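Suppose a colleague, Dr. K., hands you the sequence of a protein chain of 172 amino acids and asks what its three-dimensional shape might be. Before reaching for any lab equipment, you can write down a predicted structure in token form. Begin with the sequence itself:
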Amino acid sequence: PVHRVRTKFETLASIEDHIRLIGYLTGEDERARLVAEDFHARIARAAARRPRGAARPRVLGMGGSYSYGSKTLFNDIMRVLGAENVSAAHGFVGYEQVTDEHIARWDPDWIICGADRGQADIVRSRLLARPSVAETSAARNNRIVVITNDLFLPMSPLTPRLVERLAQILYG
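The predicted structure, expressed as tokens, is then:
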């Protein structure tokens, strides 16, 4: 039998379901159940870090010149963490190119992006060299966060590492 594995997930729940599916397909149902339960628990603990009544952080997630709108895993992570994904809030769907005009108009509280290992300072400097970014609340409050791609990009059972890191960044 052949099963085509989905690799583009739009929600955390779809990753959890996929863990269970792979367990079923490989005859490892019990192991998959344990992995899925751990996945779910780690996401819930990360979400619980948001202080009750805290304002929703307004977050712009970026990958190069693209941002993550609705129907993306980043958007679902922001939803679970109680943050606003400004790209989705302004009508972006999927992965769309974000312009300097968008960034200036949206004025995010946080800008979060990924970078290859050893490139975080370069990515941050390039962002801050853009006047539209330098004038944002995120830049003024030193809230431009660059996360290594090994943590930022996986859409897999490893995703809770990113969710935990984002919860720590946003809520301490």
